[in-house]
TrEMBL record:
This is Antitoxin HicB. It comes from the Bacteria. Gene3D superfamilies: 3.30.160.250.
Length: 139
């Protein structure tokens, strides 16, 4: 999973401002620290959607230091980010990927929708068609 560093700052009104150093577009405000961290994944996914829409690579997370707050992007969403970045690196468009997978473009649109609950097997198949292997570890 991709684990992004989160910054928490207390605002003048007592709320908490959430930021992501690796994704400056991702911001959130919470009434308390718990709410801020709980809803930070939504802010992270919204920022990732921006990168997808703008056809830009999603910055990968820097390694956090001990004691820093982090937010983990779920496994399927993490795999989608890695798949997206690989598509850009190989200069593949959605139509190219659809042709390689022998599917219609709407299926690729859903595959690359960070909020759509795609099957991990389909993400893995897409990676395979690009000459890559998706792997996971249990820690």
């Amino acid at each position: 999973m991709l684990t992004y560093l989160v910054t928490l700052e207390r605002d003048t009104n007592g709320s908490f401002l959430v930021g992501f150093p690796d994704l400056p577009e991702a911001n959130f405000v919470g009434d308390d620290e718990y709410e801020a961290l709980l809803n930070a994944v939504d802010a992270l996914e919204t920022a990732i959607e921006f990168y997808f829409d703008e056809r830009q690579p999603v910055p990968l997370p820097t390694k956090p230091k001990r004691g820093q707050h982090v937010v983990e992007l779920p496994v399927v969403e993490s795999a989608k980010v890695l798949l997206w970045n690989e598509m850009l690196a190989q200069n593949l468009r959605k139509s190219n990927l659809a042709r390689l997978l022998k599917v219609h473009i709407p299926m690729v649109d859903r595959l690359l929708d960070i909020r759509h609950s795609s099957k991990l097997e389909f993400v893995e198949e897409a990676a395979h068609t690009m000459g890559k292997k998706l792997s996971a570890t249990l820690v």
